[in-house]
Every structure is written in C-alpha cells, then in structure tokens.
Amino acid sequence: MEITILCKVVDNFGDIGVNWRLAKKLKRINPENKINLICDNLSSFKKICDQVNIDLPLQTVCDIDVYDWNAYDFCYGHFSGENNARLQVILECFQCGRPDWMEKILFDDELNHTVQIIMIDYLSAEDYAESFHKLQSLTRRGKVKKVNFMPGFTAKTGGLIIDEGWEEVPERKSDGDILFFTYARDWSGVVRAIKKNCGGKKILCAAGAGQESFVKAWKKNAGAGAGGTLEILPFMNQTDWDKMMKNASFLFIRGEETLSRACLSGTPFIWHAYPQSDEYQLVKVNALLERMRPYFDSAEFSEVAAAWQAFNSPESGENDRCLEESVSTMLAMQNHLVKGFRDFAFDLRKNGDLGENLMTFIEEICII
C-alpha cells in the first residue's frame, strides 16, 4: 500500500512536527508500506530533522520519501505515471489543501481507480471531535472519496500518536528543568512566579514565537527573586526535543505537537492555546480541562484551571496579577499534582495509538 501525507507548514513547525511523527509511526507499523511525505517548506522541516536536504525535489529520510510540494513538474511526473495508480490513500492534514499538480491528477478523466482522502484534523478536546470522527464528506468526483479522522482525548476519536519511546509514562524528575515554549505576550507575571518558586532550577526557553518576549520579561524582572537560571535554546530536532520534555519537572507549552507530548508525559504543565478572535482559545482550553477534571480532587483542579485560564486570557494589569498568583500557586503545589497528570497520561494510552487506529481504518475502507 502507498500512503501519501500532505503537509503545509503554517505555524512554527507544529504542522510538520505532527506529520513527521505520523509518517515515521506508519512506516514502523508496516515497513512494507510506501510512505510519502509532501511538504511545502523543507527549510522548516530541516529545523526538526537534520537529515533533510532543502534543495532536493525528492529524497529518502528514515525510509520515507520526502517530496517538495512546490516542485510541480517533478511531482506531477512522478505521481501521474502508471495510470495514476500511486495515489491510493492521501492524508490531508490540518486542512492544508492539495498541491495543484495533485488536483490535476485527481480530477483528470483518466483517473480510473478510487482514491481515499482522509482529512486529519487539528487536535481538540471539544465534543465535535467525536461527532466528526470518521464522518464522510463530498468531493466533486465519485472516484475521489473523502472522510474525516479526528485525533483526540477519548475512545471515540483516533487518539494521540504514541510513537517509539512514548509507550509508557516516563518517570518524572522532580529536580528537572522547567521548559518554557509559548506564543508571544508579556510574561512578566509568569517570570515573577517562576523566580519565587523555582530556586536552583534551570529554565529552558525554547526557540520560536514566544522566546523573545519571555527573555524580555526575564530581564525586566531580574530583581523579582533569586529563583532559577535562564538558558536560551536553539531549534532542536524532534528526538532531542522529546528527551528534553521527558527530563523536565514542569512544562509551559503550546501548539498541538508539544501539547500531545505533554499530555502523554504525566508531567505537570500549563498549555498556551493559539490566541484567537473573541477569545475562542478559552473554549479549547476549558474543553481540555474538562477531560482532565476527573483525575484531580476539586481543590487541585481549581488551581490548575485558574492557572490555565489566566495563562490564556488577554493581557491586562489585572490579569497579570492574577497570572502571577495562579501560576505561583500551581508551581508551589506541582509535586501534589503529579498523580493527576500521570493518571490522565495512563488513561490516554487506553485509547490506542493514532497511527495504529488510522492504519486499521485505512485497511477497512480500502477493502470496502
């Protein structure tokens, strides 16, 4: 079987991070399957995978064929041969659309076999993830089928990618570093909270959209307390990133790729959702909090929810004070929160691996 994954890098490497993890997982499930990854930004891909050559229209990395989305003539020539038979199963990830050369193949009159397009949507804890999972949708041609496949946090979704090294919940290192990886905003309140509660620990500030704003807040609040030393990180490959997350004692994280690892890590964390209009990010945050609520007693959950909500609320003087207080409280009680986060991580694994669940689904629809 040949599976083709489509990826547009939209937001700070998270898209390619998920797709690269998924591609490697699908290849491990059945090494005989041919896995293609078509990416529109090889420079971003190289940031998380050192082996990528940004100048090649086709290369093989970890037994996966990587194509440059933008190489129109090259890709059209490779995929339009053999009566277009190479396009069998297409994973269209995060509503990325399809390259023009692929559209030409799919909706050409010469296509004489059925192509299955599976829409891998964004990770969400909202209820719609369950209702949209495996929901079929229409295309403008009968031989091109399309269906949704939803990652998620329940057994009624596709689950999370549980790839090599993540099969078990890692042991938390209580004396580990603190990882900070967020979007940009004024982080003064968080810096003050860290300095009050994290004496002797190293604060690892990850490369990306939020690094500059956190460093600025750190310098601005240099006298706020003696706690912690700051280390500014370069971009890291995916393997090293995973290892660093597992060695941390507390996580401030963002995005989908790192959120899924944080949930599986069992380490106390605060999620910074992508800021949206009308503060819709709070809907997403509260939906995930509700999935986590059963794993904490009421007092613990109240403190976790307060920190998450302040972290994701718009900037203001009042919220800055609330952010400092709530994050400070959560950091102070982090060791008491470990059981809840670990229990949540254990139960997520019961939903199965997204790659395995997806492969089972692909085999079912291709047989039908």
Tell me what the structure shows.
By secondary structure, the protein is α/β, with parallel strands linked by helices. The chain contains 14 helices and 13 strands. It has helices at residues 14-29, 42-48, 72-80, 100-106, 128-132, 188-197, 211-220, 238-246, 257-265, 281-292, 298-311, 317-332, 334-349, 354-367, and strands spanning 2-7, 34-39, 58-61, 64-68, 89-93, 115-120, 136-137, 144-149, 177-180, 202-205, 229-232, 248-254, 269-272. Strands 3-4-2-1-5-6-8-7 form an eight-stranded mixed sheet, with helices on one face. The chain has a five-stranded parallel sheet with strand order 11-10-9-12-13, sandwiched between helices. The longest helix is centred in the N-terminal third of the chain and has 16 residues, at 14-29. The chain starts with a strand and ends with a helix.
Give me the count of strands.
Answer: 13
Q: Please state how the strands of the largest beta sheet are arranged side by side.
A: 3-4-2-1-5-6-8-7
- Percent range for β-strand residues: 15-25%
The biggest beta sheet, please? 8 strands, mixed
Describe how the helices and strands are arranged:
Elements: E1 2-7, H1 14-29, E2 34-39, H2 42-48, E3 58-61, E4 64-68, H3 72-80, E5 89-93, H4 100-106, E6 115-120, H5 128-132, E7 136-137, E8 144-149, E9 177-180, H6 188-197, E10 202-205, H7 211-220, E11 229-232, H8 238-246, E12 248-254, H9 257-265, E13 269-272, H10 281-292, H11 298-311, H12 317-332, H13 334-349, H14 354-367
Parallel strand pairs: 1-2, 1-5, 2-4, 5-6, 6-8, 9-10, 9-12, 10-11, 12-13
Antiparallel strand pairs: 3-4, 7-8
